[in-house]
């Protein structure tokens, strides 16, 4: 909360702001109490591979964007860390972690079984770990390929990544409009039909 509310001048009551501030404080405190933090502090600069960089790799000729929160080399392994700041540590992020593993394998020419991924839930201090055995990388790749194909099928000129706006219907569920990041561009939002 914050950027969307600011952009669209939406009111946020004091209780919501206090809850967000408390959650942010908890996340920062938990970060500084992570046992992992000492290991990160002691890494040599040559061991760091990426830190909050926007990068990409290709699947079926389509650019897939990734931004690893932290990634370093330990012996013959690559360790990827993903900070989660939401309240829940129950959500399934295995698709995201699988894409990160595919990216790391391609970027550093390392076998998937040498990649170790860890989600760190800063609101609770809990962690969830993945390796190539716990991630169905073939299934992840198939999912991404199918998703690419579905999106390309909607394009009028796929080779130019061009779509005709008239080929896309507006949602009938106008409650989704309040959370949409594209309201400023949407004719339905500007016409008032979304309220």
What does this structure look like?
With 195 residues, the protein is an alpha+beta fold. It folds into 2 domains: 34-163, no CATH class; 169-195, no CATH class. The chain is built from 6 helices and 7 strands; from the N terminus they run H-H-H-E-E-E-E-E-H-E-E-H-H. The chain has helices at residues 3-7, 14-32, 35-41, 94-108, 137-153, 187-191, and strands spanning 48-50, 53-59, 62-68, 70-74, 77-84, 115-121, 126-131. Strands 1-4-5-6-7 form a 5-stranded mixed beta sheet, with helices on one face. A two-stranded antiparallel ribbon has the order 2-3. Strand 2 (53-59) and strand 3 (62-68) form a beta hairpin. The longest helix has 19 residues, at 14-32. It is flat and about 55 Å long. The two termini are 20 Å apart. The model has no long low-confidence stretch (mean pLDDT 89).
Give a concise summary.
This protein is an alpha+beta fold and 195 residues long.
Distance between the termini: 20 Å
Largest sheet: 5 strands, mixed
Mean pLDDT: 89
Widest sheet, order of strands: 1-4-5-6-7
Note the overall shape: flat
Number of strand segments: 7
Q: Structural class of the secondary elements?
A: alpha+beta
How many structural domains does the protein architecture include? Answer: 2
Strand content: 15-25%
Q: Topology of this protein?
A:
Layout: H1 3-7, H2 14-32, H3 35-41, E1 48-50, E2 53-59, E3 62-68, E4 70-74, E5 77-84, H4 94-108, E6 115-121, E7 126-131, H5 137-153, H6 187-191
Parallel strand pairs: 5-6
Antiparallel strand pairs: 1-4, 2-3, 4-5, 6-7
């Amino acid at each position: 909360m914050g950027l969307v509310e600011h952009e669209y001048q939406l009111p946020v009551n004091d209780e919501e702001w206090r809850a967000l501030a408390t959650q942010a404080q908890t996340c920062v405190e938990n970060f500084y109490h992570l046992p992992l933090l000492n290991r990160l502090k002691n890494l040599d600069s040559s061991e760091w591979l990426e830190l909050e960089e926007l990068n990409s790799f290709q699947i079926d000729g389509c650019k897939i964007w990734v931004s690893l929160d932290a990634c370093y080399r330990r012996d013959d392994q690559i360790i990827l860390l993903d900070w989660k700041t939401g309240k829940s540590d129950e959500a399934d992020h295995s698709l995201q972690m699988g894409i990160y593993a595919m990216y790391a394998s391609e970027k550093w020419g390392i076998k998937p079984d040498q990649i170790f991924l860890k989600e760190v839930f800063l609101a609770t201090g809990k962690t969830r770990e993945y390796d190539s055995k716990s991630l169905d990388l073939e299934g992840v790749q198939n999912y991404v390929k199918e998703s690419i194909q579905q999106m390309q099928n909607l394009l009028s000129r796929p080779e130019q990544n061009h779509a005709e706006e008239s080929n896309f219907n507006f949602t009938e569920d106008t409650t989704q409009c309040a959370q949409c990041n594209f309201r400023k561009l949407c004719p339905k939002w500007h016409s008032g039909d979304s309220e």
